[in-house]
Specification:
This protein has 152 residues and is mainly α. The chain is 79% helix and 0% strand. The chain has a single domain (3-149), classed as Ferritin, core subunit, four-helix bundle (Ferritin, Up-down Bundle), CATH 1.20.1260.10. It has helices spanning 3-27, 32-59, 81-113, 116-149. Helix 1 (3-27) runs antiparallel to helix 2 (32-59), helix 2 (32-59) packs antiparallel against helix 4 and helix 3 (81-113) runs antiparallel to helix 4.
Length: 152
C-alpha cells in the first residue's frame, strides 16, 4: 500500500506550510492583517499535523521517494516591499495548493478503505485549507494593484 507515501507528503507539506506562514508573518509585520492571519493559519496547519498523526500511526509514513517531484520548498526568507509581499503570498498559495490536492488524494484512499476516521480528519482539514487558499487569493488580489502599478 502506497498510502504511507502520501501521508508522509501531507505531513511534511503541512509542516512546511506552517513554517512558511510564520516566515511571512514575521517578514511582513508592517501589514497587520497578514501578520496576524498568517500566525493563525500556521496554527491551523499545526492542528492538521496533530489530526493526521493517528492516521500516520495506523498506516505509516514513508519519506518521499521522489523529493524533486513530490516536495515543495518553504520560504526561508521573505521579500521586501509590495511586490515582495505579493510574491510571498503567491508562494504560500502554491504550498497551500499542494496541501489541498494531497488532502484530496488521501480522501480518495479513505473512501476506498471506508475509513470513517480518515474521512473525518480529511473533511475538517481540507475545509480549512480551502479557506486558507481563498484568503490568500483574496489578499493577493488586494495587494496586486499597488504592487504592480505604483512606483516604489
Amino acid at each position: 500500500m502506497n498510502l504511507s507515501v502520501y501521508l508522509g507528503l501531507l505531513h511534511k507539506a503541512e509542516q512546511t506550510l506552517a513554517d512558511s506562514f510564520r516566515q511571512v508573518a514575521k517578514g511582513h509585520g508592517e501589514e497587520p492583517d497578514v501578520h496576524f492571519l498568517c500566525q493563525t493559519l500556521a496554527k491551523q496547519c499545526d492542528e492538521h499535523q496533530r489530526a493526521l498523526q493517528p492516521l500516520v500511526d495506523r498506516y505509516g509514513e514513508t519519506p518521499e521517494a521522489e523529493p524533486e517531484r513530490l516536495h515543495a520548498e518553504g520560504l526561508s526568507e521573505t521579500r521586501q516591499g509590495p511586490v515582495g509581499l505579493l510574491r510571498d503570498l503567491q508562494d504560500l498559495y502554491l504550498l497551500a495548493s499542494l496541501v489541498d490536492i494531497t488532502w484530496g488524494m488521501v480522501k480518495q484512499a479513505g473512501q476506498a478503505l471506508r475509513d470513517s476516521e480518515m474521512l473525518a480528519v480529511v473533511d475538517q482539514c481540507d475545509k480549512q485549507t480551502a479557506v486558507q487558499l481563498a484568503w490568500l487569493q483574496s489578499r493577493m488580489r488586494q495587494a496586486a494593484p499597488q504592487a504592480l502599478l505604483v512606483a516604489e
